[in-house]
UniProtKB/TrEMBL annotation:
One CC-aspect GO term: plasma membrane
PROSITE patterns per the UniProt record, alphabetical: PMP22_1, PMP22_2
Residue intervals passing through the bilayer: 68-89, 96-120, 140-160
Name this protein carries in UniProt: Epithelial membrane protein 3 (MAM blood group)
Main location: membrane
Localization per Swiss-Prot or TrEMBL: Membrane
Source species: Paramormyrops kingsleyae
Record PANTHER family: EPITHELIAL MEMBRANE PROTEIN 3 (PTHR10671:SF8), EPITHELIAL MEMBRANE PROTEIN-RELATED (PTHR10671)
InterPro entries xref list: PMP-22/EMP/MP20-like, PMP22/EMP/MP20/Claudin, PMP22_EMP_MP20
Family to which this protein belongs: Belongs to the PMP-22/EMP/MP20 family.
């Protein structure tokens, strides 16, 4: 049982870190190695100084939906972790972690919705940036990777019983 609890806690912390990175880092769409776009900024590498120069992304309803869903997913996962720690010490033996599982599943679904919107509407989201001859970045891949991890951990939490 302690191994299972440690494994669930590590999985939860890993997915929480992946969500945080996917939400805040600057690599949802990349054009080579010199330009990238994320949920908040469009950045390019300045040739003379060698530093990244970033400007805020143009306002777009689809982008705002992705931003809200990714932030909500991160918050739900964090709340789920706090609730799990609280339940671990307060619920009686034999009880299930239903609320923790529900929060994780909701975090997975909001992450899924954000990734689907970005996948299907990236032309509208990146419209003011420049041409779409780029690729999805690693943060986009992290967001998609979090979806099954969050959903699986949510299901595992709902079947996990507290023992001695």
């Amino acid at each position: 049982m302690p191994f299972l609890l440690v494994s669930m806690t590590l999985l939860h912390l890993i997915t929480l870190a992946m969500l945080f990175i996917a939400t805040t880092e600057k690599s949802w769409w990349v054009w080579g190695t010199t330009e990238s776009s994320d949920l908040w900024y469009n950045c390019h590498l300045h040739n003379i100084t060698g530093s990244w120069q970033c400007a805020t992304t143009p306002e777009n309803d689809w982008l705002q939906a992705v931003q809200v869903l990714m932030v909500l997913s991160s918050i739900l996962s964090f709340v789920s972790f706090l609730v799990f720690m609280w339940q671990l010490f307060t619920i009686p033996r034999g009880a299930l972690f239903y609320f923790t599982g529900l929060c994780q599943v909701l975090a997975g679904l909001t992450d899924f919705a954000a990734a689907v919107i970005y996948t299907l509407r990236n032309r509208e989201i990146l419209e003011g940036s420049r041409s779409l001859e780029g690729n999805f970045g690693y943060c986009f891949i992290l967001a998609w990777t979090c979806v099954p991890l969050l959903l699986c951990s949510g299901v595992l939490y709902s079947h996990l019983r507290k023992k001695e």
